[in-house]
Amino acid sequence: MKLISRIIAVILFLIFFGFALKNTQEVTLGFFLNYEIHGPLVLILLGFFGAGAILGVLAMTPALFRHRRNATKSQKALSSLQREREAERLASIEPPHPDAVRNI
Question: Per the database record, which ranges form the Lipopolysaccharide assembly protein A domain (predicted)?
């Protein structure tokens, strides 16, 4: 399985590297207020891909913290229930009769 994933990674790298080599022409990217960026197409695409990945991770951050908070609450509730159950189990065990202890 490790070999297959490495082969796929090498194939994808070669495809993306070939894409980068074929798209080196200079492009102009226009923004508002007549602001422009000049650069190779592949670098501009890479920059926007990276910015999108960062924005995606930032968008997932609140959900991640919410899930962690819920997991912590559930873990505390579970450990509390386990302590209560252990206490009930220990309370239900009857101590030995004093005469039985003397005979041993």
Answer: 22-85
pTM of the model: 0.57
Q: Where are the domains of the chain?
A: 14-91
> 26 and 32 in contact (C-beta within 8 Å)?
no
Q: Which residues contact 19 (CB under 8 A, 6 or more apart)?
A: 42
Q: Identify the band that residue 34 occupies on the pLDDT scale cut at 50, 70 and 90.
A: confident
Helices (H), the chain: 2-22, 41-92, 98-103
Contact at 8 Å (CB) between 27 and 39? yes
Report the largest interatomic distance among the alpha carbons of the chain, rounded to a whole angstrom: 100
Residue with tokens 């386990």: 82
Contact in structure between 44 and 27 (CB atoms under 8 Å):
yes
